[in-house]
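[job 4471] stage=fold_predict status=RUNNING
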Amino acid sequence: MARFQDPHDFHATNRPPMKAGRTGRVSTRGFDARYAVPALDKGLDVIELLARDIDGLTLNEIARLLDRTSSELFRTLNALCRRGYIGQQDGDRYALTLKLFEIAHRHKPIKSLTAAAAPLMRELVNRSLQSCHLTVFHAGRVMVVAEIDSPERWAFGLKIGAQVGLTDTASGYVLLAFQDEAGRRAMMASHQKVEGELDVNRMQLLKVVRNVARKGYAQIQSRQIRGVANIAFPVLDTSGNALAVVNIPYIERIDKKITPSIPAVREMLRETAQRLSLLMGYVD
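[job 4471] inference complete, writing structure tokens
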């Protein structure tokens, strides 16, 4: 479960290299540069660059942004197109395909998690009349890996594959709160802002995360969409760390139809998160 020691928990300086541990994250530090594979590095540079640009980039733009020549990147782009990782749009612009997304969903831990969560989430949305989504920590951000819309005429939800901020969302607060110290430091060290993510004061963030750890959940007014109350509970692994977060972006009906209140929905969400945690091996 979450453990805090001092106000410097989030600082990444003067710490030893991370090793694979209870959080399941593996460090990339300490690998010998003599064994580098330049062609592979070049391809990964292209993929990571295109992941940040939804409109695609031309060969010349990619070369300029990566500080390489067009001629040395041409074969790399051709290989990535041939393998289906990128494609061309508007004639000369390269963009990522959905292949990486498909591979991520074939990854056994995520597949097992979403398969276990799906029936519980369907039950939850039918009881709460609200949409529900499941998030995990991924590459310095929070990513939606499952989503089910409300059965109501109106629904508000996040798309599967969407990435949101680690430091300004209910899901991010829960993921940070329910980690051991090493896991929390590693998450903050790898934090990558998403578009629109608000600036954060580290001390204020620490205060918020401590409060979430104490309460066992996060409930905040959305800092992205007006009128949405985000409620989030951790899905715990065998070590008591947050493997994922189950979240309801609560929208309030103001007509005559009576729907479950926020406190009622919060209890439904708590129960769902507890049941999913048990399926993931957590024992209180």
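[job 4471] summary: The chain is about 40% helix and 15% strand.
[job 4471] exit 0
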